[in-house]
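Checklist before submission:
- one chain only
- standard amino acids only
- sequence pasted in full

Submission:
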Amino acid sequence: MAPADQKLEMLKSLPLFSDLDHRHLERLGQLTDEVDLPAAYRLWSQGDPGTEAFVVVNGNLHVERNGRVLADLGRGSIVGEMSIYSEGPRMATVTVSEPSQLLVISHGNFHILMDEFPEVRLKVLDVLAQRVRLLDPEGSH
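Returned file contents:
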């Protein structure tokens, strides 16, 4: 797996974490696991309980909902990020489509980060609010 500074660069490159300062990123890096998974490994099935997010370091993830292909995600992509905020059912099935290196951020570990640094919680709320605005541009915001 990549050295710690490359891990932090990968996390910082994600819009979700781009506003975190170096101290917060370092702690997130400490709370983030690294895994190597083979092709055809199913991360989860639609409807499964969600408890973590995955960041693609190398490789590719295939995403389907109700049997329809939604995306193929490569290096620098994140999948399952809603589960680090709030555990709930998965909205799609995600399968590793080639041998892949992934970062894993668990719901529990992300909440440790937010408990240690309340300002991170505020940054996360801001990102979520921006996403809601994009989902319903004509809604009353």
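Reviewer check: Residues 33 and 104 are 5 Å apart (CA to CA).
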